[in-house]
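hey can u check if this looks right to u? its 302 residues, i copy pasted from the old doc so theres a chance i mangled smth
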Amino acid sequence: MLSEHYAQVTVVELGYPPPHRDKVTVGVRYASRTFRLREGALGHDRLIITGGTAARPRGGALTAIEDGRHHVSLAGLLGDTRRPTSPSSSALPRHLPFPDIYRAIIDAEPLDDGAAFGYPASIRVRYERLNRFPAGLLVIGDAVCTLNPVYGQGMTVAAIQAMALRRMLAAGAAPDASRYFRRIAKVITVPWDIAVGGDLANPAVAGRRTAETRLASAYLPRLHAAAANDPALARAFVRVSGLIDRPESLLRPDRLARVVTAPRRQPSAATPLSRWPDAWRRSSAGPSAGSARSTSPTHRAR
């Protein structure tokens, strides 16, 4: 299996033109760890998502998984955390904009040592725009499109691409490369727009902002705020981010009305950089520059 870089190198070495690449630099650092929570720590909820803001570009997610365990991931954007360690009940989670995840794992039992990762940029390789492509070679998964991992869409997008390829193979002939890349481009567009649109809501992230992107950047923080206290909106958001429903479903008139009339929840007081855990303040920059935008509060989904 070839990576995104080596797939392009292979195409060029075979004498074909290099494909165009769309790239959005996000500078994400994130850490994940598994816990066993105390009984009743989440009530009836199965998921907590805390989004970051331009002023406080830190976020996290706590997800119920199998065998009574819970998975916690914490992330910083644009170098907000250069060397995150595993999230612990006494360190990183309490520095999120809202305390929900910290409160849930304050006395939880860690089940592993956790792991930390870095992710520099989201990249989409536009093979569908090529007029020529090597016969017998197809590209799939991260070699076509890598997405900011904080949105949790990479494996789903790769699986949907694989399903598209399976349908083409079922016809009994080798898939035509041009037709294949056009088909998976349709698969990629929605999650790419979701992830890149979410990142471009932060004014410190460089990239082209279309009218659609600016509309989403204005609307989604309001939806996030409403979803913090509205389980129906929280479920709707999770279904869209999980690629079950189309993004347009969040603009249904009844959901628009709930967003407009919902009260807002304010974030907790900011923690000075000097008081962050050592592993999180090794960044020379600290929080991203830029004026504060609407809060992206915590979602609790059942």
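Residues 1-302 form one domain.
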